[in-house]
Structures are given as C-alpha cells and as structure tokens.
Amino acid sequence: MTTSSYDKVFKQLNAKPVKKAKYIKFNKPRERSCGIALFKCKNCGRNRGHIKKYGLHLCRQCFRDMATKIGFKKFS
Question: Does 2 score more than 80 pLDDT?
Fold first, then answer.
C-alpha cells in the first residue's frame, strides 16, 4: 500500500478511533531488520541498486546523476 492511499484512509477513520486503531494494528508497514527493503535511496526512495558505501545511501541511478557534484571522478 502506498503512503498516499494510507493517508487517505486516515482521513476517513479520524472520526472512528477504535476502527482506526484496529486498521493501524493490522495494516502498518512492517519494521525491517534485514533484507532488501531495509535500505532506501535518500533521493528517490528506491530500494534496489542501493549504494551504502561511504554513507551515501543512494540508488545507482541517483548516484550516476549526482556523482560529479559529490566529488567522484569517472575513470575510463
């Protein structure tokens, strides 16, 4: 479930606190301790192709766009 639709449901359930608590209990996103979904890109939110070396936390596509601005050089 995307965050936008999750927020839409909250708008409808604000008048019903008991149903809202039950909804949150069963439908909240899982807390991750390991796996591919644990790390996300700071820029776009992707979780595949993640580069966490040097504390970058960027996906490979965003890294290609930002590499020269960050200070990396391309060696060919």
Answer: no
Place of tokens 């930002």: 66
Query: In the chain, how many domains are there?
Result: 2
- 54's enclosing H/E stretch is none
Mean pLDDT of 47-56: 90
Residue 66 sits in a domain whose CATH number is 4.10.830.10
Q: Which helix (H) or strand (E) holds 59?
A: strand 58-59
Which candidate, 55, 49, 54, places its Cα nearest to that of 64? 49
Cβ neighbours for 5, distance < 8 A, ≥ 6 positions apart: none
**The pair of three-digit structure tokens given for residue 30, joined into one six-digit string:** 């899982």
One domain for residues 44 and 15: no
CA-to-CA dists, residue 3 to 64, 66, 67, angstroms: 27, 26, 29
